[in-house]
Amino acid sequence: MRLAAKKRAGWAISAQLLEGTQSQVRVGGEWIDVVKVGSGEPIVLVPGLAGGWRLLAPLARTLSKRFSVHLCGLRGDRFPSGGGWATDLIDYARDLAEVIPLIGLERPGVVGVSFGGAVALEMAVSHPHALSALTLVGADAKFRASIASTIARRVLERFPLPADNPFVNQFFNLLHGGKPDSDALADFVVERCWETDQSVMARRLALLESFDATDRLWRVDVPTLILAGSRDAVVPPTRQRALAQAISGARFETLEGAGHVGFLTHRGDVARHVASLMRVARHSPC
Hints:
This protein is an alpha/beta fold. It contains twelve helices and eight strands. An eight-stranded mixed beta sheet has the order 1-2-4-3-5-6-7-8, sandwiched between helices.
């Protein structure tokens, strides 16, 4: 049974411009969006492979009750054929490190989800002085391609698809780790993900396949939190726990019942854990 339009609208409105400010900054030869909402201690949110900052809007709303939240887009979100392709995750990490001072921040807390978690982790190892705390949701130090991700990348690369393609939508539904909590949530995730050009999705999947920070994790020198959905079918919790164990002093927490999109379904828990980490960061030596 489909949910009533009123309930579906509750998710849809989350993708609209938040009650804050939207601007653009230029990095890597391309303009990217930056949206700011709330006030207080600064946190930067780094979006995943698809969906851009709009997919993180519900989490930003929750975090903005305590923090000044800055949602940073990624190269390719607005102009798929724009100022030049990123050639690896290092390019995205460099973009993020450049954006932070451009928007007037100095060593904010950084929260990265999925692909954005890989970008945030790469920034933490290659630009350790750019942030004060690191939270990763559904991320790993090395991407391990699955049959599903490989097929999805090949399809996205080779075949122009309509935004309601059933095969790719099923891939998006894997993000829930089971049956979505609601049809409205499933629709929200699919609609936001299709706002990212399929060529950009394919390119980012390809870049993930060559990403490996396992031998550089010793460079992470800020309070770190790894949040894993207990039903994450994309990056299993065991791998995320291993990541936490490989980073000195990192905490590992489970989002019980959450899939890969736990930052949506369990955003209250995510916000609570992030707030706890930021308290630790305040008392950590610079």
